[in-house]
Amino acid sequence: MSSSKKSTNVSLTTLQQIKQQGEKFACLTAYDACFASILSEAGVEVLLVGDSLGMVLQGHDSTLPVTMEDMIYHTQCVKRGNKGALVMSDLPFMSYSSETQTLENAAALMRAGAHMVKLEGGAWIANTTKLLAERGIPVCAHMGLTPQSVNRIGGFHVQGRDTGQAQLIIEEAHLLQDAGANILLLECVPKSLAKTITDILEIPVIGIGAGPETTGQIMVLHDVLGVSPITPKFVKNFLIESSNGIPGAIEAYVKAVKTKAFPAQEHSFN
Ligand code: KIV
């Protein structure tokens, strides 16, 4: 495996340039200093302090129990280990329900070391996105399968399969870009829908279970390392083939994203 480049002070401008050049960037979740260091040294451009920590670290069956205290603690840990990647932190379930609460919580994550915050939703988060953007807090809007709404959705299912639902996702993606979102994240949508949205939006789109055409790809770290108890279709274990342990697996993931070898057809939904 050839050595990959350390991510040097990745910013939103870097990600926008990658999109304009028709290239790809790699993202992974990170929850502690040690992995933040390994991932950013291996060339991962975006470290997501995801509320998936509720499932992979804490053993819950959803992300709902994750608190602001959890997110602040893990964001601080990731900040200490990070070597130049952009750090994005999740606003957890019910932490952006009112304007005051949103501003206080987003500010707390930024003070803890995040460079931007991520929140889940469609049209209903447009005002929140505008509120944060106007105050200098960059926003990633998470659409498609939104795990904080798992009880409403009725499970972890692919979204946007029928034409009406796909059209709604496209319209809401536009709305969130217009409201000031800097990145859109699409989880578990058909690859053709992800391609359409990536092509029509100006901002970079990051995909997970959304096919190969998005500008960025993201995975949960524990999935890439094959230690998660469940393995969804879109997951690939990069540790199995690594001859250099965890750093080798992460470098292989970065390379596979950038060369468009991952995700392959078998990791995508049609
Ligand atoms: O919390 C998380 O890890 C996420 C990813 C699944 C994108 O939101």
TrEMBL record:
Enzyme class, spelled out: transferase
UniProt subcellular location: Cytoplasm
Reactions that this protein is recorded to catalyse: (6R)-5,10-methylene-5,6,7,8-tetrahydrofolate + 3-methyl-2-oxobutanoate + H2O = 2-dehydropantoate + (6S)-5,6,7,8-tetrahydrofolate
SUPFAM superfamilies given in the database record: Phosphoenolpyruvate/pyruvate domain
EC number of the protein: 2.1.2.11
GO biological process: methylation; pantothenate biosynthetic process
Superkingdom: Bacteria
HAMAP family hit by this protein: PanB (MF_00156)
Quaternary structure, from the entry: Homodecamer; pentamer of dimers.
Protein name as catalogued: 3-methyl-2-oxobutanoate hydroxymethyltransferase
Gene coding for it: panB
